[in-house]
């Protein structure tokens, strides 16, 4: 699998292993690739927390409740 090969290349080069990879295209058609290093599998953050964090990080949208906003801030510090 190509993602596994890419992950192994990072390790071989002594770079921190990433946990997720995101592909975005700009309006000009350029590809932007970003890597995330949060260990979601071993974290205490559930699916809703991850979705809220993604919406905030990607689009600047904070959740509606104070509890969920605090979770997003907690994930930022993780």
Automatic annotation (TrEMBL):
Any Pfam family hit: YezG-like
Record NCBIfam families: staph_tand_hypo (TIGR01741)
Official protein name in the record: TIGR01741 family protein
Organism (species): Staphylococcus aureus
């Amino acid at each position: 699998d190509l993602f596994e090969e890419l992950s192994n290349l990072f390790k071989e080069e002594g770079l921190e292993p990433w946990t997720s990879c995101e592909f975005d295209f700009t309006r000009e058609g350029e590809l932007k690739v970003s890597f995330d290093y949060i260990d979601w599998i071993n974290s205490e953050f559930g699916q809703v927390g991850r979705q809220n964090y993604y919406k905030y990080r990607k689009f600047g949208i904070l959740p509606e409740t104070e509890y969920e906003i605090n979770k997003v801030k907690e994930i930022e510090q993780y």
